[in-house]
Structures are given as C-alpha cells and as structure tokens.
Specification:
Length: 263
C-alpha cells in the first residue's frame, strides 16, 4: 500500500503521543495534595497501548502482511492497553462534578447503549474485516491511498468499542453479564479463525500472491487468538460479581425514633 505515511496517516502519527501526554498530565494531577492518586498500572497500560498504536502507524503497509500487522496492532492489541488504562474514569476524575454528571447522563442514553453493546462491537470489528477482504474494498484502498487513514481509524474505533464492551473498567451503559460477553468473544474468535482459513485458501479478494495470503492468514489466526485470550483474561481480571437481589438489606434506624429516644 503506497503512501502509507503521507497525508492523513502522517496526521494520525500525532494521535499516540497526544493521547499519552494528555492522559499522563491528567494522571499526574491526581497526585496533587487532597487527591486520591492514580494507578501506575493504569498509566503503564495506557502507555503500552499508545506505543503499540505508534508502532503500527510506523509500519510499512505496502502489502497484505503489513496490512495484517496494522490490523492486529491497531484493532486488537493497542485497544486492549488503552481500555485497561481506564481513560474514561480518569477523565471523570479530572473534570468538575457537574460536567461528570452530564457525561454520565449522556452515557445512559439508548443510542449509546446500543452502540456500546458487545454484539455491536463484534459487527463493527469482524463484520468490517469480512467486508474488507471478501469484497473489492481492499483493492480500492490499494489504488486510493487516501482511504487508508480512514481504514486505520475504523480499526481503532471499532477495536476500542469491542474491547471496552467485553472488559472495559470505565463506567458506561449497563452491559450484558459475563456469560453473554464470553459467548460474544467466542464468536469473535470463530469469525477471525474462519476468515483466516478463507484467506489461507486464497478465497479472499486481496490482490496478493499466495505466499502473502498464507503469511497474513497465519498472523490473523495465531496473533488474533493471542489478542483474544488476553481480552478474556482482562474480562476475568476486571469482573466484579453483582450483589444478590434477594440478599437482605441492612435495616436503617428511623431517625425520628432515634431523636425521640435521645430527647
């Protein structure tokens, strides 16, 4: 893919450092006196995600193998680091309470709930890959390099949405339970594996030699599996059991009676 680092992609190269320095500035402000501080692990995770994103944007993507590395880094591995950095929580702790309440009200809107559902994330990520490789769309990106930045942006946004919907620690709309999310993650694994097999067999519209097809398919199969295993581990690490609905609620004393007794 020619012209990878020109035009729009050149502008995208500014995204990782801007994201990280903005995150780091907000995290350092949490260390001011009177504040609770911020997790170093969260900062390291977000920094790792930003670094993977920068590496992906610097990679030459003039063939299918380079394109596959970019997809895996931008769409799967970098979003995992960014999401586990909990940037939404950090942002809420950095703004005024009024702004934070307004943001939380926005997150509860039905449109946001639908957009952040795990099935929506699956359709955006896996569906986008099938559309790219089973239609002439990939060939079009080869002849129109200006479309490549838009493709990378889709990888990043869809990967972030899917990763957050499965294991995001940030507040947001109510998500399905862990069993549902694990099923959706399993469907994602199957979708990637199936597309990798189709690519290995040369049944995709990729305009690439057979050796490139096999290498790209192998990367999708094994590195994609690794990314999804890490996502499953992140889900288990961030999962918190919901309180039982039938558990007895503590009885609060009646303030009026307490006042009467004291009187």
């Amino acid at each position: 893919m020619t012209g990878t680092h020109g035009g729009g992609v050149g502008l995208l190269l500014l995204v990782p450092p801007v994201l990280f320095w903005g995150y780091l500035a907000a995290a350092l402000r949490q260390c001011d006196p009177g504040r609770a501080g911020w997790s170093h692990w969260r900062t390291a995770s977000f920094g790792a995600g930003a670094a993977l994103l920068a590496v992906a944007l610097l990679l030459p993507a003039h063939d299918l193998v380079g394109h596959m590395w970019q997809h895996l880094l931008v769409g799967m591995l970098a979003p995992l680091g960014l999401v586990l950095g909990a940037p939404g929580t950090l942002a809420l702790r950095s703004v005024t309470p009024r702004t934070g309440r307004a943001a939380l009200r926005l997150l509860r809107r039905p449109a946001v709930t639908v957009a952040s559902h795990p099935v929506t994330g699956l359709l955006l990520t896996a569906g986008g890959l099938y559309l790219l490789h089973l239609t002439p769309l990939y060939r079009v990106t080869l002849t129109h390099p200006g479309l490549h930045p838009a493709l990378l942006l889709h990888f990043l946004v869809s990967g972030y949405v899917f990763t957050w919907s499965i294991a995001g620690p940030d507040p947001g709309p109510h998500r399905p339970g862990v069993p549902v999310r694990l099923v959706v993650l399993g469907l994602s694994v199957a979708a990637h594996a199936t597309l990798a097999q189709l690519m290995y067999a040369g049944l995709v519209d990729a305009a690439a030699p057979a050796a490139q097809l096999r290498t790209a398919a192998t990367l999708m199969y094994y590195v994609g599996d690794l990314a999804e295993i890490l996502l499953a581990l992140a889900l288990l690490a961030t999962w918190r059991p919901e309180p039982r609905r039938n558990s007895p609620t503590p009885v609060r004393p009646d303030r009026r009676r307490v006042g009467a007794v004291r009187a």
